[in-house]
Amino acid sequence: MTDATSQTGLPGAQPRKSLHAADARTRRRNASEARFRFFGAAAIAISILALIVLLTSVLGNGLSAFRQTFITMPVALDAKVLDKSGTGDIEVMKKVTTIGYAKVIEKALTAALAEKGIATDGLDAKQISGLLSQEAAASLRNQVLADPSMVGQTVDVKLLANGRVDGFFKGRVTMDSAKLDSNISPEQLELALKMREAGLMSVSFNSGFLFGGDASELRPEAAGLGVAILGSAYMMLIVLVLALPIGVAASIYLEEFAPKNKWTDLIEVNISNLAAVPSIVFGILGLAIFINFMGLPQSAPIVGGLVLTLMTLPTIIIATRAALKAVPPSIRDAALGIGASKMQAITHHVLPLAMPGILTGTIIGLAQALGETAPLLLIGMVAFVREFPGAPPEGFFDPASALPVQVYNFTQRADPAFVERASGAIIVLLVFLLLMNAVAILLRRRFERRW
Amino acid sequence: MNDMRIADRTVSTDTAKMTARGVQVYYGENHALKDVDIDILGGTVTAFIGPSGCGKSTFLRCLNRMNDTVAVARVLGEIKLDGEDIYDKAVDPVTLRARVGMVFQKPNPFPKSIYDNVAYGPKIHGLTKSKAELDQVVETSLKKAALWNEVKDRLHAPGTGLSGGQQQRLCIARAIATSPEVLLMDEPCSALDPIATAQVEELIDELRSQFSVVIVTHSMQQAARVSQRTAFFHLGNLVEYGETGQIFTNPQDPRTESYITGRIG
């Protein structure tokens, strides 16, 4: 094109203009881009802010659950009370209930206070022992029954303090609120302060929160997540063992072998739909099939695991199919061209290349299942479970709890001490989720190959 | 054009290795290949030329039943390898493909080591009894593919780390490691630079001593350089098939003449 023709102004030809002065059209275009970038940055800023608020609230409320007030004192384990036969026979010793131990502890506490020279004016014995958790006697009994040789000796034991005393040291309970509280009085709190100064009472790491079972409404200080963590672990094991092979096999069949026709289209649509089905529907399904029809026990990890497997399968299938689709067809051609069978081409070449995607999908599915609450409520996992389930495989059929359900459970209880425990359980849940995502990233890095 | 040729025009045998009679291919409703009759000779390089979409790659993929992997493809007619119908129900495409190897347009080494790439075929077909034998097969295949000297010190480096030309020769080594009788090459040089192309072309001529080679190419110069026989496809028809020199110097069909002189295509 010559200069002459370009200046005659063909339709669509650009008029000559300076590069240094942007015209209105360019300015508009740039402004819209700048606007879009601003909205994007603003959206991210808002989500980061929301995340910070969430984390501060959860951490602020929940971190204190990992610390607990304990009373450490020497306890004289009176053989006359605890081992009436004097033979050390464990069956006889088991007949002594926690009431017997409570008396021993009460006596020990009074003695310890007297030894430290702490005045207990105006407090009766019941009020003094009220500083201890109701759980203290049970835990001492368990310790003694585990090691009967302790009887007759004076041993240093670490016992849980009452939840109100614990709340006082954590700032949840104040002198003012204690005045209105039937469970604790300001005088008792004064005594607790003196005991702390004397070294009888201290706040330290609370392993019981991670490894202990749940406890009743009346003893929030003893409530732990152990059963819930174990129950969740059992369920994740079941989900992994069932959902991964079934999901991967189904995806391989659908992606590589199944004929493309109306039926496979229908199946495909339904898998996508299943992924979007509200999880509580899976809970009803599990209740109907696994508990009512098949007669599996309620509250059992096996039922929870099966329900969560059903829920996780679509996620795994969709992720696996996407990963299989992403493997370049040239690799399949190469293998088939050498004379590999379809199955060999898939297992030797396609599957290893799709592995990072499959594993990521699986772990995301597992993480989703780990945090799932609604279906578990329906199959009875919301029950109060104190006892640990047994070792697998029998343990799969024992009642257990699950982490998210435990959070729900804690939030339902009246005592304010459960607020920190619910948040603490959320922290544990989040830590597990982060760990799983970290594993997903690591596996991805490890298996990722370029081609 | 004749000056550039690297291939000897004489054909060492007149026996047909593969014969095709009345081959029709449909992709769904689309009649992609119409009534193709051809004899692929043993110990010969046969070139398929023709404009894009003329069916030459389709026909090549019929020869080792790679079209089976395309759900909508339907192949009619008869293709025989050494007198046996390869579309017979009794034929397992897997054993067929071990005898009729294939090299693809784009180099597609497995994302594994060079050694594993070449050893894969012999391994899955159980061709070797010991590690030493397998080493031997890998070495001979790489030598035949003129790649041995470049990779012998890094056999366990990834095959995908090689240059494009080296990757394509690796794919050829992988294809010949199973000692096929026919080697199909679908535009093996289209992704390669001229030097790599020259290396592969030389290699093709050497391979002729052991296999029948069928090569699909867009480059008429390449067909003229490497082949003894040339088949010209146009719009799904096999227009003309004959001795390469004759096709290029004295084509019988006006369409062939138009194509090689550049008027169509």
Automatic annotation (TrEMBL), chain A:
InterPro entries reported in the protein's UniProt record? DUF3333, MetI-like, MetI-like_sf, Phosphate_PstA
Transmembrane domains' residue ranges: 36-59, 233-254, 274-296, 302-324, 350-371, 422-443
As for subcellular location, the record says: Cell inner membrane; Cell membrane
Q: What is its main location?
A: membrane
Q: Does the record bear Acetylation in its keywords? A: no
Region annotated Disordered sits at 1-25
**MF terms in GO:** phosphate transmembrane transporter activity
Residues covered by the ABC transmembrane type-1 domain: 229-440
Source taxon at top rank? Bacteria
GO annotation, cellular component aspect: plasma membrane
Q: Name one Pfam family in it.
A: BPD_transp_1
Which CDD domains does this entry report, sorted A to Z? TM_PBP2 (cd06261)
Topology in the lipid bilayer is annotated as: Multi-pass membrane protein
**Record GO biological process:** phosphate ion transmembrane transport
Ordered alphabetically, the record's keywords are:
Cell membrane, Membrane, Transmembrane, Transmembrane helix, Transport
This protein's record includes keyword RNA-binding: no
Family per record: Belongs to the binding-protein-dependent transport system permease family. CysTW subfamily.
Q: What is this protein called?
A: Phosphate transport system permease protein PstA
Organism annotation:
Gemmobacter lutimaris
UniProtKB/TrEMBL annotation, chain B:
* Cellular component annotations (GO), alphabetically ordered: membrane
Q: Which SMART domains does the record associate with it?
A: AAA (SM00382)
**Entry keyword annotation includes NADP:** no
Q: Which GO terms describe its biological process?
A: phosphate ion transmembrane transport
Where does the record place the ABC transporter domain?
Answer: 18-260
PROSITE patterns listed in its UniProt record: ABC_TRANSPORTER_1 (PS00211), ABC_TRANSPORTER_2 (PS50893)
Name the NCBIfam families on file: 3a0107s01c2 (TIGR00972)
Check the record and name the InterPro entries matching this protein.
Answer: AAA+_ATPase (IPR003593), ABC_transporter-like_ATP-bd (IPR003439), ABC_transporter-like_CS (IPR017871), P-loop_NTPase (IPR027417), PstB-like (IPR005670)
Q: What is this protein called?
A: Phosphate ABC transporter ATP-binding protein
Q: Which terms does the record give in the GO molecular function aspect? A: ATP binding; ATP hydrolysis activity; phosphate transmembrane transporter activity
One Pfam entry name: ABC_tran
- The organism's lineage? Bacteria, Pseudomonadati, Pseudomonadota, Alphaproteobacteria, Rhodobacterales
Query: What are the alphabetically sorted keywords of the record?
Result: ATP-binding, Nucleotide-binding, Phosphate transport, Transport
